[in-house]
Amino acid sequence: MMKKITLRSGVFGILFSFLLLIGCEFETGGDGGFNTALFGWVNFSGVYRATSGSFLVSDFTADTGGASNITDTISVSGEIVGFADFFTSDFAGVLRNRGIVSGSVSITGPGVFLSDTGTGALEGASGSGTINYATGAYTLNFPSEPCCGNITASYTFTRSTTVGGTQSGSSLEIFSLTVFQTGNLLELVDNNGSKYTGQLGNVATTVGTSGADINDPSQPVQPGFGDTAIAEFTAEGISASGVGVMIVGTFQGRVAFFSGENAFLDNRVLNGTWIEANGITGDINGSAAPVEIVFPVN
Fold it and tell me: Distance between CA 82 and CA 78 in Å, rounded?
């Protein structure tokens, strides 16, 4: 049975200031899975599609004939990069996409506006920051500790997509992966109907704490405002082109509050590597819609 998590702002504000001092990580056990009693609220089920609206599996390292590369420039707006909570002045993370166009980044939020100087610096009256155009890594600093609501990024990026040839993901294009997560077990189904099964590995949270007693492993890890959960995973299967495939990567999501007291896991992304038995590899960069956070009932 599951129950919905509701967090009241007064009590949770005090709790959150305490959560900022703590990080939690669960190392996998012998079975390679994560403890659902601790991380039962971590849910990465959903349909993952490329942010560009093009191929989900792209940027192959080899071509078996007749392929060409197309470079697109894609605009992104409203990507959540932090939650202004009156307690936090510093934020850091990685944007969903790489190859950011210099000068294109803007950061907005409650009382927040930073613009990209084109040199990797983000500047504005409310604070400052940095952006790595190649990797998408960012840092933000707001001395006034703004409140309250999401801090978002808008930017453009370039992506090269392999088209044609005989690679799976190109001749048999992969535009989406539907993920079914049950505890630590995973099933990924691509748009061609091919299935890849596997499991989650290590799960880490950035500011979570294990219930009332952080030394009691039986207590579920409670998420905090802006908390990020990252989970390693592997999956294997046969693609529609008949080639054995291993998928290795991470899922990531951020805790956000969109509707009253209800908590959601937003910014859910899948970043991984597509590895074919014939030696061809490709990049996987996708995102899925938010899901409401629920806890297992003991």
Answer: 11
